[in-house]
Amino acid sequence: MINRLDTVFWAYFDEYIKKDSSLIFKKINNDLKEKINEIYDVTYYSLFQFQLWKNESLINIEPEKFSEISNYIISNYNELFIFTFQDKKIESKFKEIDETQKIFIKQVIEEFVLNHIIKTSFNSSDDISQNYYWNFANLCALTSKFEYDINFKNEKESKYYYSIVYPFLLTMLMIDVLKPSDMVDKIKKVFNRKNISEAYKKGRELTSEEKEWLEPTIQFLKNEDELNAFILNFKKDNWEKIDVKQKFKIIHELSKITTIFLRDNLKNISVISEGDDVYEAIYTYLPLFLSSNKEQGKINIKTFEGPLKNVHSISPIIQKDFNPIWTLKHSKKFKEFKKIKFRSEKLFDFIARVRYSTYYMEIINKTKRNNGVLGDCLISFKKVGIVQTMHFYNQIEEKFDFNYKNVKFKSINLDAKNFSKMLNKVDRFEEIADYNSQMSIMLKIISLTITIDPKAPKAFDYSWENLIKYYIIAFGPYKKSMMSFTNKDLELIEFKINKLLIQYKKLQQKDKVVDSIGVLYKLHHFK
Prior knowledge:
With 527 residues, the protein is mostly helical. The chain folds into three domains: 8-122, no CATH class; 124-313, no CATH class; 324-526, no CATH class. The protein has 27 helices and eight strands. The radius of gyration is 24 Å and the shape is globular.
């Protein structure tokens, strides 16, 4: 949803704009909030597309670039909106952009949004998170934002193609470069002859130019000795001895195989070439995922032979509404918040795990669109949680067919109005039967988080009460001058859920709530 109106972002909004004299920010109402929410989200996504358009990484945003960026966004607003939200049900607040709306959008971008992004959303490569879940979620987010290149459209077919960097990023994700100990096993499961052969048979016919470009890779795959020697590069001991540049080059070689799986949405698979353009477009992000301690986040700038430096990059994950640093800073102002017992590092970890689980499912949905081979591999890595527990997919031999849709991160919208509904008394399972209720969404998000990663329950002491508490602290609601929830509110919600857990035992259609209360029931009786 784009209409989150009671987040920590809005609690601090006056502070963000206090030095701004623009009249458009003088009267803050819900309509203005919704417009700013939309423009902010579109701008954030646009910065990644802008990097593709310029074929350069944004290490900062100088004020001199503001006008160029805002003009780029306004010129491509409809396409950028569609790809930002990827949901036909969401309608833009600016359906037909006239001159007045152009001026408004330009003002919001240049006078507020870009400044806010500069202050809150740039990461330094010498300050890399050590949280695996957060880093994997960032890799998923980056892969999603660079999936398509909206700057080049096939007008004849009205079709957009995958970006030049997408095969590389998806390859990093498929083999999970953040867990070197598992990489060799995943490479063998994903890039085996059976999967490659199946992908090769499906989809569009390769052009003669593509076949010629791919021929050395095909011959390489046929030579078992060469292939095994290449795969050994990904063995943990060997991987940790090489630098980022070398890691990039061997992943790029693997991504040539990935293009076979993706070719229906690649105009020409040879566009990735030998990786020079790919490297230039994303070099600032490589230390986040490939850097070792000895390199201290340094990377060769722009080219393989460029100077070795630390760099900045825009966070792939937009944290406008759910930034734990700002949440803690804001909440500590209120005495009531001190009554809620929690640990800040656990809050960070909880948000990271939620992002990890929801992004993982998002990437599955994306990779199932084409021939489905890569999506099936991702499902198989998490089969116990995704198939056997949550039943999002049914297994038929070695393939997985869609069963029903999973909950998405964008569904979280705990504004004050929705939160108050969670405090109302409800008979039996009516509230969680409503797919759009925030109680249902909360239980589904938590259930997904603790099933997709078997280590999650232990991290929160096998306590569903803890998970509920961290969820509400993480996702609001928040107001400028008051706490929107209290410890008593948390206890009331726990009481409601506990009643559902008691009733669940007698429920006849347990399969209807397996992805919400069913998982918590198992956790409750595990203790």
